[in-house]
Write a structure and sequence with these properties.
By secondary structure, the chain is α/β, with parallel strands linked by helices. It has ten helices and 16 strands. The structure holds NADPH dihydro-nicotinamide-adenine-dinucleotide phosphate.
Length: 329
């Protein structure tokens, strides 16, 4: 009897549908490295993909899930051998490339990152795409000249996946972090992660003036739309704002005034096509700089069998912190 593996598959025959299926080796697709997947995660993008609220999936049938961690079981790639621990995220997983919601994955080894030794597979997915995006955002702030002595850093969407890890990272680096959330009942949680102050996201989410009182030296924005417009309008002279998300919306009702009068920098953050050297640097820094105890406190296990039912919850902003998808359950 040949082995089969449980996977969450998107189909479009005749309409978009997602279901758990048992697949064989031939359905794992092409690649020179085969991985026993141990963990994946649930991201906002996974919620969009599984519900088809946005047309994320471009190819059918496709294994869903934007990331995974696990152990190499077979490799024809010079950089990897059986037993190596690896991480995969982005590069079109769950868009036009098979993703991580599968017990077994086959992938091009050029797209894999070797897991830093100090991290377990589970910790890698406690970080996941969200944590790695948070690290890319911190790196972008630093490249814009941000240092803790410049002033406060705001994190929007703070109780979500990217936001929670950004709070932990920035607090660990010595910044005074202000967390913006729609869930003020999570104030104690956000404070325990390192936020010095928690503000209600409603103070940022309505249409605002093009120039507002200067407050933030830096901002990690996860929500876009009016919130991003307001935080840019509130950023200090020479401050840096990073934009990675669209949880409030993809629109950006902004003027050029903060850029031409206050020298504000707005830096986009893309995790999907980030070059390999930047990925490796982000994972290296996560392994050495992220407070793992705090990371554990913001993560919870989600059985693989429940990931599909959890899709609407992440879109509704009901998931706190990082959901680690345990492929063994
Ligand atoms: P989560 O759903 O975990 O977090 C998003 C958070 O945004 C929510 O927890 C909530 O935080 C806040 N939020 C939700 N709805 C609204 C709203 N209507 N108005 C204002 N705030 C809102 O998602 P992730 O952390 O996984 O991702 C965050 C964003 O970053 C998403 O838009 C995602 O698509 C994007 N992303 C982009 C990447 C890239 O490569 N550019 C990579 C990874 C993610 P709270 O309850 O605290 O208010």
């Amino acid at each position: 009897m040949t082995d089969t593996y449980k996977a969450l598959i998107a189909n479009n025959d005749p309409e978009f549908s997602v279901s758990y299926q048992q697949i064989g080796e031939q359905e794992l697709g092409e690649g020179d490295v085969t991985v026993a997947v141990e963990y994946s995660t649930l991201n906002f993008k996974d919620g969009l993909a599984m519900t088809n609220a946005s047309p994320i999936v471009q190819k059918f049938p496709l294994i869903m899930g934007v990331d995974f961690s696990g152990t190499v079981v077979e490799s024809d790639h010079a950089g990897f051998q059986a037993g190596d621990k690896v991480v995969m995220n982005g590069y079109g997983c769950s868009e036009n490339r098979n993703g991580g919601y599968t017990e077994r994955a086959r992938i091009n080894g050029d797209l894999l990152v070797a897991l830093p030794e100090s991290l377990t597979s589970r910790q890698a997915m406690a970080i996941g795409t969200a944590g790695y995006t948070a690290m890319l955002s911190v790196m972008a702030l630093e490249e814009g000249g941000m240092t803790p002595d410049r002033g406060e850093v705001l994190v929007t969407g703070a109780a979500g996946g990217v936001g929670t890890v950004a709070v932990v990272l920035l607090a660990g680096l010595g910044y005074r972090v202000v967390a913006s959330t729609g869930r003020m009942e999570e104030t104690e949680f956000l404070t325990s992660l390192g936020a010095a102050e928690v503000i209600d996201r409603q103070t940022l989410s309505e249409p605002g003036k093009p120039m507002q009182r200067e407050r933030w030296a830096g901002v990690v924005d996860c929500v876009g739309s009016k919130t991003l417009a307001n935080v840019v309008a509130q950023t200090q002279y020479g401050g840096v704002v990073t934009a990675c998300g669209l949880a409030q919306g993809a629109d950006l009702p902004l003027t050029v005034l903060p850029f031409i009068l206050r020298n504000v920098q707005l830096q986009g953050v893309d995790s999907v096509h980030a070059p390999m050297a930047r990925r490796q640097e982000a994972w290296r820094r996560l392994a050495s700089e992220l407070d793992i105890a705090r990371l554990e406190s913001l993560s919870f296990d989600l059985p693989f069998s429940e990931v599909l039912d959890s899709a609407p919850k992440i879109l509704a902003g009901q998931i706190r912190g990082r959901a680690i998808v345990d492929m063994g359950q």
